[in-house]
Amino acid sequence: xxxxxxxxxxxxxxxxxxxxxxxxxxxxxxxxxxxxxxxxxxxxxxxxxxxxxxxxxxxxxxxxxxxxxxxxxxxxxxxxxxxxxxxxxxxxx
Length: 93
Hints:
- The protein is mainly alpha-helical.
- The protein has one domain (21-86).
- It has helices at 2-8, 21-34, 39-58, 65-79.
- Helix 2 (21-34) packs across helix 3 (39-58).
- The model has no long low-confidence stretch (mean pLDDT 83).
């Protein structure tokens, strides 16, 4: 985490307490996208989100890259609520 934050903040001249809010939200979206409790799912979700955001920014739509991340989360939760690699757990009483 320390090395990652040093690499992330090397582009910024100042650091504020709220500067890590968007990367934290995107990490949460990646975990939900892949399936809560599935580490490989979170990794795959992060890769898919990163590739899609890069393609959107490459197309010149930089203002919509964050909106696409959350729209993708809404679509995945509507289609498959457990995520890509999530499992339906049956509760035994």
